[in-house]
Amino acid sequence: MLVQAFWLLFFYLLGLGVSLLIGGIIPGSVLGMVLLFIALALGWLKAERVSRIAELLIDNMVLFFLPAAVGLVTSVGLISANLVAILVAAAVSTVLIVAAVAVTQQRMEIRKRKRKIKAAGHETR
């Protein structure tokens, strides 16, 4: 489990380093997750190398959100003063995410159909 934690920490720190190099435009933790995803997708890192620690973190995710929830409770005045802006931002970002997912799904379906057609063409020869 310690080796698995090392890999997560490695990609987190790698993301922080890249974030510093690009001027902090994207948070290091986000870049670390993207780099970890790329390493997993390309097979540079096997999922088994991080699966147990990932399951442990997911199983205890509620504990990681407690400090954020407490922070929200202590900021009720600030939140209520900016409620309209927060709701507009949440609605707009939700619509943008749904649109991005829809476009991505459509493109993946088109690519899948093209591959099937291409594979069927090779089988008939």
From TrEMBL:
Coiled coil: none
Membrane topology according to the record: Multi-pass membrane protein
UniProt entry tagged with the keyword Oxidoreductase: no
Parts of the chain that traverse the membrane: 12-45, 57-79, 85-104
Predominant cellular place of this UniProt entry's protein: membrane
Cellular component GO terms, alphabetical: plasma membrane
Family annotation (Pfam families): LrgA (PF03788)
Entry keyword annotation includes Membrane: yes
Keywords: Cell membrane, Membrane, Transmembrane, Transmembrane helix
Protein name per its UniProtKB record: CidA/LrgA family protein
